[in-house]
Amino acid sequence: MQEPEEKKIALELLETEQAYVNRLHLLDQVFYTELMKEARTGKTVPEEVVKMIFSNISSIYQFHAEFFLPELQKRMEDWNCNPRIGDVIQKLAPFLKMYGEYVKNFDKAVELITAWSEKSSPFQELIADIQKRKVCANLTLQHHMLEPVQRIPRYELLLKDYIRKLPPQSPDRGDAEKALEMIFMVAKHSNAAIAEMERLQNLWVVYQRLGLEDDIVDPSNELIKEGPIQKVSTRSNSTSEKYLFLFNNMLLYCVPRVIQVGAEFQVHLRMDVEGMKVRELKDTEFPHTFLVSGKKRTLELQAR
């Protein structure tokens, strides 16, 4: 008798889960534990830094090792009388939201490893020593740390495959489809968390370039576009270099600062998007010009 296709995929899920739990054990019980022990001696790296690198890996490891893997193992042993995994994955799905924190922290963690490896040779030596062990399979700490980031997409793929191979009348179809939907939502949740973090980081960089003016710094603003522009002066029939930042709620008309200390730009004019009008001009002498009118002022600008 050949194994049914859906059982092969369920077994693949179990096998990859076992390998994944070993990887989490390595991250939490070996790297994190040993670096933490070393940090407590106070010679290598602050404890806080180690905690920041590994984020909530301990919770993730415990969840998979003590709950999800045993549940899957039990289910696969009973497969012949209960051929289903959809319900088990439904129990898993809500806990995958824990990954949001880990994934959001990942880039920062990698930066910290690089920075502290340069700063502290005992820190670098301890990591190198662990990486030499057989259990690391010649891979770096960063490589092992990537595994949790890739795990949720992997569940999604395996489950899609599993549903595809299920016989139409399978009693597991409803549960498996619901589980896939839940995992999809979790993946979206963790991607949204990363996107939001990136948006805030980029926004902060823009505010620094503008000199952190109090009335401009607002986390809910969204930067839509920025770039150099020429200001047309009809009086002197010439143009001068300016810079625009367009947010969802305001347009900042700026002048590049000559002395590059602190802020990069000085805000000359702030125009509310509400009530702002933009009109193209047909000017043969200055092509690509347009008027931007706010409540108080109108600017004649020329694009490249």
From TrEMBL:
<dbReference type="InterPro" id="IPR035899">
    <property type="entry name" value="DBL_dom_sf"/>
</dbReference>
<dbReference type="GO" id="GO:0005856">
    <property type="term" value="C:cytoskeleton"/>
</dbReference>
<dbReference type="InterPro" id="IPR001849">
    <property type="entry name" value="PH_domain"/>
</dbReference>
<dbReference type="Pfam" id="PF00621">
    <property type="entry name" value="RhoGEF"/>
</dbReference>
<keyword id="KW-0963">Cytoplasm</keyword>
<dbReference type="Pfam" id="PF22697">
    <property type="entry name" value="SOS1_NGEF_PH"/>
</dbReference>
<keyword id="KW-0206">Cytoskeleton</keyword>
<dbReference type="InterPro" id="IPR000219">
    <property type="entry name" value="DH_dom"/>
</dbReference>
<feature type="domain" description="PH">
    <location>
        <begin position="222"/>
        <end position="304"/>
    </location>
</feature>
<dbReference type="GO" id="GO:0005085">
    <property type="term" value="F:guanyl-nucleotide exchange factor activity"/>
</dbReference>
<dbReference type="GO" id="GO:0008270">
    <property type="term" value="F:zinc ion binding"/>
</dbReference>
<dbReference type="GO" id="GO:0005737">
    <property type="term" value="C:cytoplasm"/>
</dbReference>
<protein>
    <submittedName>
        <fullName>FGD2 protein</fullName>
    </submittedName>
</protein>
<keyword id="KW-0677">Repeat</keyword>
<dbReference type="GO" id="GO:0046847">
    <property type="term" value="P:filopodium assembly"/>
</dbReference>
<dbReference type="InterPro" id="IPR051092">
    <property type="entry name" value="FYVE_RhoGEF_PH"/>
</dbReference>
<dbReference type="InterPro" id="IPR055251">
    <property type="entry name" value="SOS1_NGEF_PH"/>
</dbReference>
<feature type="domain" description="DH">
    <location>
        <begin position="5"/>
        <end position="193"/>
    </location>
</feature>
<keyword id="KW-0479">Metal-binding</keyword>
<keyword id="KW-0863">Zinc-finger</keyword>
<keyword id="KW-0597">Phosphoprotein</keyword>
<keyword id="KW-0862">Zinc</keyword>
<dbReference type="GO" id="GO:0007010">
    <property type="term" value="P:cytoskeleton organization"/>
</dbReference>
<dbReference type="InterPro" id="IPR011993">
    <property type="entry name" value="PH-like_dom_sf"/>
</dbReference>
